[in-house]
Structures are given as structure tokens and as C-alpha cells.
Amino acid sequence: MRYIYSLSLILLSPIFLSGSICAISDYYNSDFKARINLNSVNYIFYSIEQNIKIDTDSTKLKERLNTPPDSLLQNEIYAADDLTTQNSKKGFLKKSSLGGTLYFWDRNRERKNVITKDYVNDIIQTTFTAELNFKSAPIAKMFSVELGGYGVWQPHSGGTTLPSEIAFSNHKSRWRETWDEDSDGVSFYKALIDFRLKNYLWAKVGYIQPSGQTLLAPHWSLLPGTYEGFEVGTVLDFGKSGVLSASYMWTDRYKTPWYRKLDKFYRMGPDSERVNYLHSLGAKYDFKNNLVLEAAFGQSAHYLNQYLGKISYKTNIANNPLSMSYQFYGSQDQDHSGTKVYDGLAWLQGITLFYQTGPVGWKLEGTAVQAKGEQGFFLQRMTSAYASTQGRLDIWWNSRSDFDAHDEKAIFGEISYDLKNLFSFLEGFKIAASYAYGWDARPSKNPIYDQTQKIWERAWNLDLGYVIPKGSFKGTLFQIHYTNYNNNSKNAPWSGGYGNIFQDEHDLKIFVILPFTVLSPQK
Fold it and tell me: If DSSP codes are grouped into helix, strand and coil, which group holds residue 241?
């Protein structure tokens, strides 16, 4: 009955959504790619990487003094001035944008009880989310204002893992979390001033999401997390020689999408020492010959240093495109007192390959981790506490586990197929199957844990996606994802020295993403 209820909502959701936005026209068609973090597991599904950035001018024009004209000429001047003001206001609105996204999310996840060996409900939820964005027309050809907010309604929620990270936590602050309840509500995720000087210089200040080359990144639920701070960058085009993109970001507060209050940074939580700020500097050089080099450095004040090096290259083999990369992520304790997160330099290295042969996509990736220390696994973020901040990691397999324990090696393979190749009426449908396997996972070095342990973990996944290719709802995404995960551990979740490994799971996620536009910029 539970699945019948969920599928009924899926089938009826376009009707509900269309009724709620009957006055809205011009639906967006966009590329969907999303990121999500669930229970400290870096989790990416399909989301929107379009910026339906939207804002209106909230500043009222000053009213004219109601003074009698001295002459007909003055009347004409006032009339001409009024017309200029009206035209200017109309022009401003025509160059502003307003839109958003409607989301439906349904999840059923069960996890094995280590004592009874039975699977029990871990997450059962149905959630509706609405997002609205504003972006103003350029002011003085250099500035614009961006605002974004969202609301969540969760008609059904159950299971033992809370918050679910799709609805709001019942507690507005991460540091007041008691892990007991979800709630409905509203919040903001951006409020910023955007500065552009052609491509030579750009900057954002306020409540922002990182968009440059740094190591700072937000968590993703259905919406991204929010930093308080600023980011500044540049893009320098050297013609045939290549393009250099560089940026710097500084921040002192952050909130994930499932909290409504921006929090300060701490090393492990509010009972530990405060981290006053995070900052990061990064650069990318595109040689315009399919070779791209990237490097970045990040730092949490008096706590951790982090590093990134990445090489990407594209070529053709048998007239089909092959994309490949090598990626290095490093993290190291600074010279500080207290618990050492890592012993020396911890790192995650990865190699990725993607080959497209007509309608078939072939993906093969591998990673290796060294993270010896008290934590026992590699984290790309610059603070250790759950949901306290997030960092960049371009490798993710949507297989529940992060496969990031100390000394763990892992491989991932996926085959995807575009079904329109079979029949034209299947345009927009795509299926995929994937498998991930990790081995030699070692525990934290803390001597209270059995240091002879080694864990293997594996997962297989199935995906079915559909993007409406034409019509009024063009660009709307329907997605079903199933994961079957297991390992050979007898530990309870996140125990035994494995702070980021849990028990066996079955996980089914169904979601719908419908972008819409109310007002789009006119040239």
C-alpha cells in the first residue's frame, strides 16, 4: 500500500503542480545535476544546475513633489521626465527574472539490525518543496541583487533516522540538534549582491553558494546550503593559449538546507574550540585543447589545511568521446592542541573514465584512501562535525557509502542507455545500472578499536529517468533510484572505529523536479 500511495502521488503530481501554477508561463528547460548529503554521506542525485536566478527591484522610486509648474515649458519637462522614469522602470523589470522549482520527493529506506538481522524502517518520507528565486536587472551595468527562498511540506514521515535531510529538522540550529523530528517550514538560501566587470572581475557578497574554483562547497538537499561571506574571482582569456579562471572565498557561518539558522564553525561541535573562519583559493587553466588543470588550497583557521590537484583530458577513440581525469584531495592538521584528526597528510586519490558509444555510456572509476588518525576516514570538509560545512569532491557514486575509510580501495562501474535509440516515443527516457566495491577498510587508530579489522563493502544500483522533451512541461524530470548496499561488518552503524560505515541497506528514492519561469530577461 505504501508504494501504491507513492506512485499515485507521482502520477498525480504534474496535475497538482500545474494547477498551482496555472498563471505561470514559459517553463524552463535545463540540465539536471544535483547534490545531496545524507547522514554525513556525500550524496549526489540529479538536481538543477541552472541558475534560475531571479530578483525584483524592491526600491520604490521617490515620488515627485506636487508643486505647481511655473510655465508650460516646465510642464513639458516634468512630463518628459515622468515618461523617462516609466520607461526606465519598465526596462528594469524586463531585464529582471523571477522563477523557481517545484519538487516532489518520496523515500523508503530500510537498514539491517545488527542483533536481530532483520531489516527495519530507517527513513519513510514524502515531501513537497517549492523554491522561488529573484534576480534584478543590472544596475549601472555592474551590480545585481539575487534572492532565493523555499518552503517545505512533509505530509508523511517515519523511521528511525532523523532529520531526514529533505524536510527541515525540528531544530533550527545544527548545534541544538536532538535527532528526533522533522518539520515543515520556510527559509532562505541566498541573499546577495553580485558584481560583474565584464569577465575581468566578479564578486558576490552576502548569503551565497560558492561558484568559483575553491575547495568550499555546499551540502545539497533539494536546495543547496548557504555560506555567509564573500567570493571574488576573475576569468582571463589568452586567446589560443587558453583561459585562466581563479577565485578566493572567505566565510564565517554556514547552514545546510535542512536547518534554518546560520551557525558558527567549531572543530567537532559547540563544546570544542571555535573555528573563526574558513577560506580558500583556487585556479583552473583550460588550454583549449581538451586539457584542463586545476589546483586549490583551503584552510580552517588554526585547524585543518586542505589541497586539491586535478587533471582532466578529453579525446576521441574510434570516433567516440572519452573523458578522463586524475584527482588528488589532501587534508592535514595544522599545529594545534587537542585531538589530531589525521596523522600526517591524509588523502583521497581517484581516476575517472567515461566513454560514450552512441546511446550507451560507459563509466569506470577508482579511488584509494589514506586517512590514518583518530577520525579514521577522509573528509573533504574543513570542520569535522556533521553538517557543519562542506568541501569539494568531484567523485561520487550514488551508492550510499562514501568508500572513504582509512586504507580503503574502491572501484565503480556504470552502464547507461538512452532509450530513444530503440523507439522515438521513448525520447527522454534513460536507464542505468551500476556497481561499487570497496575493500581493505581499516578503523580509527584509537587503541580501543580492534586494529586487525578489515571491511569490504559493495552496492548495486538501478536508475530510471525521464525528462519531458517538449510541450508546456518541457524539462520536468522524473527519477527513480534504487540501491542495495551491504558489507561484512558486524558493527552497529558508525561504530567499531568506522565513523562513516553503517549496516546493510535497501534504499528506494522517487522524485519529480519541475522548474518554472514567471519573468525572464528580455534583450
Answer: helix
